[in-house]
TrEMBL record:
It comes from Paenibacillus wenxiniae. Keywords: Oxidoreductase. This is SDR family oxidoreductase. It comes from the Bacteria. The lineage of its organism: Bacteria, Bacillati, Bacillota, Bacilli, Bacillales. Gene3D superfamilies: NAD(P)-binding Rossmann-like Domain. Pfam families: adh_short_C2. PANTHER family: NADPH-DEPENDENT ALDEHYDE REDUCTASE-LIKE PROTEIN, CHLOROPLASTIC-RELATED, RE15974P. The keyword Nucleotide-binding does not apply. The keyword Oxidoreductase applies. CDD domains: SDR_c. Belongs to the short-chain dehydrogenases/reductases (SDR) family.
């Protein structure tokens, strides 16, 4: 989904800075060139967002390469299966470091820097996974840490409204990106009344709208864009 977000925003004239980790050697540079070919600036950084200093290091690099950003999209996620039998300290800490800590600290870095800049508006968009809507047994660490993003989004939106920064979260539902196989698709398809599974472009359209000037009156919302997905 991250690449879809980059392409969609770049096509609207937005400069892009993206992150990656353990990526194919050629892929980040291929994407960077693709974005540049759309007529905007683009840079990237390979960084482990589970590191305690990741948010500070990443934000410093963004400022160095492109200057003060006006849009922050927190799309990175860590996920393993953990039921009550397998749940342990390491599983919780691994999920917390990426899903919660990096997201929350990047939001704070963004807002602190934005408060010092003379900019008309800012946008923070966090990605969640529908933990507010139904149980996800067998994914306890994941649902706990991703669910926290919803609560954080709502409270942060109230704090940042005076700065003209909107803060929203998007739940794209099951999305057919690189993780699905045919077995998963066959299982999920009957649960989509529109007759297809969600694609990264579906999420990208909503993210692009929330990042736009037109979305200035929408903040503190958890937007479930799932094509009518039936749980």
């Amino acid at each position: 989904m991250g690449t879809a977000f980059c392409r969609k925003l770049a096509s609207a004239g937005v400069d892009i800075f993206f992150t990656c980790w353990n990526a194919d050697v050629e892929w980040p540079e291929v994407l960077r060139q693709e974005i540049i070919d759309l007529g905007v600036r683009c840079a990237y950084m390979e960084i482990d967002l589970s590191a305690s200093t990741a948010a500070i290091e990443l934000y410093a690099e963004v400022m160095k390469q492109l200057g003060q950003p006006t849009i922050l999209i927190n799309n990175a996620a860590y996920s393993t299966n953990n039921d009550y039998i397998s749940l342990d300290v390491k599983a919780l800490d691994d999920h917390y470091a990426v899903n919660m800590r990096s997201t929350f600290l990047l939001c704070a870095e963004f807002a602190r820097a934005f408060a010092k800049a003379d900019l008309p508006y800012g946008r923070i968009i966090n990605l969640t996974s529908g933990q507010d809507l139904a149980p996800m047994p067998g994914e306890l660490a994941y649902v706990a840490t991703k669910g926290a993003i919803s609560a954080f989004t709502r409270s942060l939106s109230r704090e940042l409204a005076p700065l003209r920064i909107t803060v929203n979260a998007v739940n794209p539902g099951p999305t057919d990106s690189t993780w699905m196989n045919d077995e998963v698709r066959e299982y999920l398809l009957p649960q989509f009344p529109m007759g297809r599974i969600g694609t990264p472009n579906d999420a990208a359209r909503l993210v692009a709208f929330l990042a736009s000037e037109e979305a200035e009156w929408i903040t503190g919302q958890i937007m479930n864009s799932e094509g009518g997905f039936i749980r």
